[in-house]
Design a protein that fits this description.
Layout lengths: L3 E4 L11 H12 L4 E3 L6 E5 L3 H11 L8 E3 L6 H4 L5 H10 L4 E6 L14 E5 L4 H9 L4 E2 L14 H8 L5 E4 L10 E4 L6 E4 L5 H8 L3 E2 L1 H4 L22 E6 L2 H17 L4 E5 L11 E4 L6 H18 L3 E5 L7 H11 L4 E3 L1
Parallel strand pairs: 1-8, 2-8, 4-6, 5-9, 10-11, 12-15, 12-16, 13-14, 13-15
Antiparallel strand pairs: 2-3, 3-7, 4-7, 5-6, 9-10
Bound molecules: threonylcarbamoyladenylate and magnesium ion (MG).
Amino acid sequence: MQTEIAKIEIDETGSIENYDAIVRAGQIIRAGGLVAFPTETVYGLGGNALFPDAAKKIYAAKGRPSDNPLIIHIAELESLTKLTDHIPDEAIRLAEAFWCGPLTMILKKSAAVPFETTGGLDTVAIREPSHPVALALIREGGGFIAAPSANTSGRPSPTKASHVAEDLSGKIEMILDGGDVAVGLESTIIDLTEEIPTILRPGAVTLEMLKSVLGEVRIDPGLIDEASAVAPKAPGMKYRHYAPKAEMLLIEGEASRVTEKINALAAKATSNGRSVGILSTEEAVDFYPKGTVLSLGKREREDEIARHLYDALRRFDELKVDVIYAEGFSDAGLSQAIQNRLLKAAGHQVITV
Ligand code: TXA
Ligand code: MG
């Protein structure tokens, strides 16, 4: 299959200049085909959420196990009534505070949602993204787009159109290129079918922000303790996600000791003939004499770190390094999401100094 790549131009007022490309993409979705599109978090691989066969095509293009449910993207709050028969009060309050934006809610599904889209679950994940291209495509495509991140299963999520093309060219009808994404990490997922609202995946809508609206919020024990026996509730969280091709280790502790430890590890690996990648922050970037060093940005600029993380992991893949040593982050605010993705990429290999 030939994949069309359409660059979408957005003017200063936020309106789309070549809207005809969106109309074409919407027709593809309505006809049951697949279109990758930008959201504010990461690029998504979209298909019609109400067509069982579109979900099957998505799983095939990604090489993803079909028990891993998809998020349905909507463009207006009213669309919720099609996807669920019961909208809890918490969902309305969260939508008022954080939609459109990087928050996904899990609700009981209605009969209109095919089990193919939910991976056989009787619940459904829903979000209203804020990217103008995503919103326009959802409207043109009929209102309901199922979309996982637009990467091959097991690779880092795409934060630019070239990442999508790397993984999915030839496998889908169209890619809408809306430039680099703003957030860089996937949406926060909150399960509202539990007695206490439960975070299944941390993201840019943080625990603190959710608590400010809902009061009590808990974090899925499978998330905190993924290395142990507690099974995470979001099926996707059980797979080794966000994985670079190289072995990766996360080094945590006081900054100067982290740098010292990484240098010791890098020296040893280099002398054993292994090529080394170092995932650094701007403050430390000049203190690593060995290895290929990529800086994610200033440590206090969590937003920059989040935006650059997946691109850096992909660059290490291209450079074919054998091992990556990464500086760790704290577990508060947006850093909680950064640290969660780093832990996954490292397969939970952590050294504390
Ligand atoms: O930011 C995002 O959420 C991006 C953009 C494209 O919107 N999408 C995304 O989708 O990250 P995906 O498929 O890569 O991750 C969806 C996660 C998976 O871990 C899946 O298991 C979980 O959401 N999920 C989906 N439906 C669920 C449900 N009904 N119950 C529990 N977890 C669910
Ligand atoms: Mg994904």
